[in-house]
Amino acid sequence: MHILETHNLTKTYGDFTAVSNLNLHIRKGRVYGFLGPNGAGKSTTMKMLLGLTHPTDGQVTIDGKTYPQDRVSILKEIGSFIEAPAFYGNLTGEENLDIIRKILGLPKSSVGEALDLVGLTQFRKRLAKKYSLGMKQRLGLAGALIGRPPILILDEPTNGLDPVGIHEIRTLIQSLPQQYDCTVLVSSHLLPEVELMAEDIGILNHGHLLFEGTMEALRLQAHAAGFPMDNLEETFLAMIDADNRKKGGAR
After folding, report:
1. CA angle 46, 50, 157 (to 5 degrees)
2. Which element (helix H / strand E) includes 172?
3. Quick one: 96 exposed, middle or buried, by C-beta within 10 A (0-12, 13-18, 19+)?
4. Phi, psi of 20 (to 5 degrees)
5. Distance from C-alpha of 111 to C-alpha of 97, rounded to nearest angstrom
6. 204: number of CA atoms within 13 Å, CB side?
7. Contact yes or no for 43/155 (Cβ under 8 A)
8. CA nearest neighbour of 3 among 212, 184, 198, 208
9. 3-state DSSP: the chain helix, strand, coil percent, rounded to 5?
10. DSSP classification of residue 53
11. Contact criterion met (CB below 8 Å) for 67 and 219
12. Cα–Cα dist 24/204, whole Å
């Protein structure tokens, strides 16, 4: 069952097409790795999924509901972490999360649960401006996880974390479908991490979807095309390079 789908989703800015006729199929209870080089249209797509940017054409269906008609009810089902999360520096981590809790109408206990999930409980009383970059990333993730939404959209969730932190967040993301019946769309430049945590992959380049399917299907397609298959990063780079050459975009 697909919990999130896009139907010919398109976004143009004047003469520039950021996302072109995109058809995503994200299965319920899976971790979906959303990949592409800088400028591929990933962030624009995620903003459209969250209703932050209005599509030029096409539509989004999330859990049987469609944008823009059901925008408010859709947003209640999605936790998100897009770009660098913004916080009130003069409030503690706990207080920042409490603002989100009140907006969403969640019980007070949800703040402590979210902090615990991302390993910030001992720093809950520290002012957000005194958090390290890695701690801010964790706080952003806690804000996305609060209330345990059925869908999570995460953009670079391990940015700024040390190797131990990256491992902890990856393990957490991997556990979410099983523990909380959650579906996760995760975008990251750390392809070895995506390879370890994602079951399904979507690869975007110049606003077009080059591939969508399981990791195994990606390996089979790479083999058929004569691309490297040793790891996701090599396959990804070869696929992007071939597409750029085809489009005359090789530098």
Report:
1. 55
2. helix 163-180
3. buried
4. -125, 115
5. 6
6. 27
7. yes
8. 184
9. 40, 25, 35
10. S
11. no
12. 10
What is the total residue count of the chain? 251
Return d(Cα 116, Cα 138) in angstroms, integer: 10
- pLDDT tens, 113-135? 999 988 899 999 999 999 988 88
Question: Which residues are CB-neighbours of 34 under 8 A, at least 6 positions away?
Answer: 42, 45, 46, 185, 186, 187, 202, 204
Burial class (CB in 10 A: 0-12, 13-18, 19+), 245: exposed
Closest CA to 48 of 103, 5, 100, 85: 5
CA gap 54, 52 in Å, rounded = 7
pTM for the complete prediction?
0.90
Block residue for tokens 């972490």: 81
Q: Which bin fits 150, alpha (ψ -120 to 50), beta or left (φ > 0)?
A: alpha
156 phi/psi in degrees, rounded to 5: 50, 55
Q: What pLDDT, on the 0 to 100 scale, is given for residue 167? A: 87
pLDDT of residue 251: 47
3-state SS class at 148: coil
> Which letter does DSSP use for residue 46 in this model?
H
Contact yes or no for 119/171 (Cβ under 8 A): no
* 227, 233 contact by CB (below 8 A): no
101-131: string of b/e by CB count within 10 Å (b at 16+)? beeeebeeebbebbbebbbbeebbeebbeeb
Among 212, 46, 233, which Cα is nearest to 19's?
46
